[in-house]
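[Meeting: bench + compute handoff]

Bench side (C.D.) handed over the final construct sequence. Compute side (W.E.) agreed to return the predicted structure before the next meeting so the bench team could plan truncations. Sequence as handed over:
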Amino acid sequence: MHLLYDGGIDYLGRKTIIFSACHLPNSNDFDYDFLLKYRESYVEEDYAVIFFSSPARHKPSWMWLLKAYRQLDHSFMKNLKALYVLHMSTSYQYVFNLANKIIGSKFNDKVSYLATLDELDKIIDLAHVRLPHEVVEYELALPHSLFAYHHHYYHDQSQHLHHRNNNHYHHSHHHHHYQVSQQKEGPKGHFVFGRNLEDLAKVEGITMSDQSDVYIPMVVRKLVEHIRSTGLQQEGIFRKSPSNADLSKARDDLDQDHHMQIEHLDVHTVASLLKMFLAGLPGPLISSEFAEARYKNKDAADLGQKLQQYYRDKPHHLALLQYLIYFLAQVSEHSDRNKMTAHNLAIVFSPCLIRSTVAFSDILTNPADAAVYLGQMKSHMVFIEFLIKEKDTVFNTIDDK
């Protein structure tokens, strides 16, 4: 059961939480107040919430919803940048609007009602989001949905393939979700975001014979140098977000012209663009399986050897990881001014750098599952923090090979 889980990074570089109403259990068997406790791990930085509101067999009562809204503290309200509500019925939207009035117009401005998954796909890449099969089935039944025509996706519920609406579904007995194929075609003319490193290297004229040289994407060098020049002393660098409009425009402009000059951009916009680029890579720089298996390893030299083996066939990925870690270490050296210690940087960057490469598993069915999941998040942060602090030993081991 997928009730509440990490949705990854949206196109504006923000963490997302997904809440699936279709998996809400009967309130007689489940303490809904548990949901309020889960938010505490997210309020330290900007994030967005995606609410799959339909279908829902069980729904929180009106009284519980109003109670939940009253309990939302300042840190939650301040760092919650957007609430995207998909497939909301008219009657329940009335409850939402009533609750929004209790909090005030500022919160109401953060709420967006979406009619289809295609609208959501413009906000976050659904290739990296696990979609409950109930939500997709509900979507496909809508007369105005174009989702079936725009995407190939897989449904894990049995061991055979079947066809519906000219799309393919893959089924398994253990997991119940759809995953949009990562081979879906992106917008033409986009040079930067959502492309793999090999494609970017070709765009920049780097050939396979050049792989002995260190390759760092031009856009990454440009963004990092801007931050080095103007942002190392900025308090909250990588934590403070620009306006959605400014960030979206900068992203679109840079995506159309990777030679674009960025000196005129605010440093917080540039910092957000760097996070967006990393989060948008089709594959993670580090798999969660690798990080979780080795985050307790405090032998930096041994970890360097393991990284060298891991990246044997991915030299561009290793070069980019090393470049980023050294840059983050430089940022942390100014933490007395910018407040971004190695630990704080690990909190911000671990979701951008570490993702799973295998099928998603069920999480957050109950508090015990939540503890396991939060433990995974912690292991990712510990891993990145260790790389930042022990960069010289880790990467010198690789360079010496």
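W.E. noted at the follow-up: DSSP finds 19 helices and twelve strands in the chain. C.D. will use this when planning the next construct.
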